[in-house]
Amino acid sequence: MSVFSMDIGTAQEVILTGEEIDIFQEVMNIAFGQASADLAEILDAFVVLNVPEVRMLDESALPDLIREGAGPGALSIIEQSYWGKLSGKTVLFFPASAREGLARLFGEFSREDALACAEKEIFLEAGNFIAGGCIARLANCLDDLVTYTAPRSAEILERNADKKTSPTLRRIAAVKIPFSIDKHGVSGLLILTASHESIPWLKTSLKRFMEQYG
Q1: Which of 101, 116, 120, 211 is 20 to 30 A from 163 in CA distance terms?
Q2: pTM to 2 decimals?
């Protein structure tokens, strides 16, 4: 069963409804369009952010979702937490093949020559620009202001892949956004989560967002 399956149970009061998920997706379409324009201006490259897929899942299913996002093959995984009224984390997945394109793209922002940059530094810098830009624009659309932790390199612990975790009845909103960077041969996946504690505020904020057009 996909980790995106919804089991409402007794936690219905902190779950986005189908209508709210549609609104949240529309807000993200607007926010990510703005983020893409920002990144194009900064990087002189167009970042294509695909249509986001929004689902609710139990907090305990997040490690499975991350493993599912990683899939097979060598990857760099960049994780960053953010907090404000909306809080959660982002996890960015890059295939190993993205290194050369990212080195060309971010070389001008590095103190070292692009070819001499450490691989981890390149991916961390890319994660900071892409994930940070998306979160900033999303928060702005929802009249929020967020702060971030520094991005860090994460690893998928395969030895825990078969470990079963009990449902917590703490629901989070999870968003999957495939992306690519035009003309640089770079593609990847961004997973964004809104924490259990954020959901009540998010529901109110989405309602307020729609009232602007009522």
Answers
A1: 120
A2: 0.80
